[in-house]
Amino acid sequence: MTRTVDLGDVFRARRAISPWVRRTPLVRSESLSRLAGAQVHLKLETAHETGAFKIRGATNRLSALDADERARGVVTVSTGNHGRAVALAARRAGTRAVVCLSELVPANKRAAIERLGAELRVLGRSQDEAEVEAERLTRDEGLVPVHPFDDPHVIAGQGTIGLELLEDLGSVDTLIAGLSGGGLLGGTAIALKAANPAARVIGVSMERGPAMIESVRAGRPVAVAEEQSLADSLGGGIGLGNRHTFELVRRVVDDYVLVSEREIAAGMAHLFRHERLVAEGGASVGVAAMLAGRVPGLHGNVACIVSGNNVDMDAYLRVINGSWFEENGA
User: Which of 30, 143, 184, 224 has minimal Cβ neighbours within 10 Å of its Cβ?
Assistant: First the structure.
């Protein structure tokens, strides 16, 4: 049975995670404000200890474990950032953590998870294949599943971003953020739409394997082939049995935008050159959409979530110095 996450859940999540999770900065972007003709503000989730917003939801989920569950340990599936967050939250809780990844997850993200003490299981070429191993560990070893997005505690934890945006800006006219499983955008939108039902929420995905957008178009969760992308953190399916985020996204997201690999690279480069920010591809898609003119009609206060900075630095430097564009004929 599904349960609707509401504003009360988000406030309870903030109380639960506040001893462990940083309040992140909100900075005005002069360059993007000029481009958009609006006041564009960047929410820097890159400031977290794990380098990405996922620590909010993971911490809230693990804070809800009872003594028996902590003794059993947890298992999760991840494209990297969630696994790192679960690893840290589990270490703080004194519980075992196993993180299942596909072979598409970059090596730098795998290493970061292992450094935090989690056990890695790397298998298959998609998040769906890694999910099979997580389900086996849940069934055979009794580990507690911590879903990367389709979980009320995780959604509410990500929603704390919305509370901080409202407190810092007073009002938000448009939210722009990456859209993958829907926990980040859906959770944040719960808070923003409670304050202003007219707030416009825009979800941005890469053209290569946008599982949530394809599912919304189909009217039901569908399987989408997972492809390599600069926005690797947005990869993976939403689950054919999705219980929470699919309906939440359909309810709260007003517009959907797809961006190309070249546009993602341009977003990453813009954040570095104009904002002095290191951001991974999945964190740059909102900026990419604005630079490409895919989000017209912006006005008032615009909040764009820069969701993480866990990028392979060799690949990142190729984007910044321009060689990536040459290598890819872009």
Answer: 30
> Backbone dihedral region of 117: left (phi > 0), alpha (psi from -120 to 50 degrees) or beta?
left
pLDDT of residue 1: 43
CATH of domain 55-145: 3.40.50.1100
The two tokens of residue 272 are 């570095």
DSSP secondary structure string, 161-201? Answer: HHHHHHHHHS--SEEEEE-SSSHHHHHHHHHHHHH-TT-EE
Contacts of 321 by beta carbon, 8 Å cutoff, 6+ apart: none
Nearest to 62 by CA among 35, 34, 82, 81: 82
Q: How far is CA 308 from the centre of its chain?
A: 8
CATH of 7-54+152-327, one of 3.40.50.720, 3.30.70.1560, 3.30.70.1290, 3.40.50.1100: 3.40.50.1100
Give the DSSP per-residue string, 78-95: -SSHHHHHHHHHHHHHT-
pLDDT of 112-135, one tens digit each?
999 999 999 998 888 888 889 999
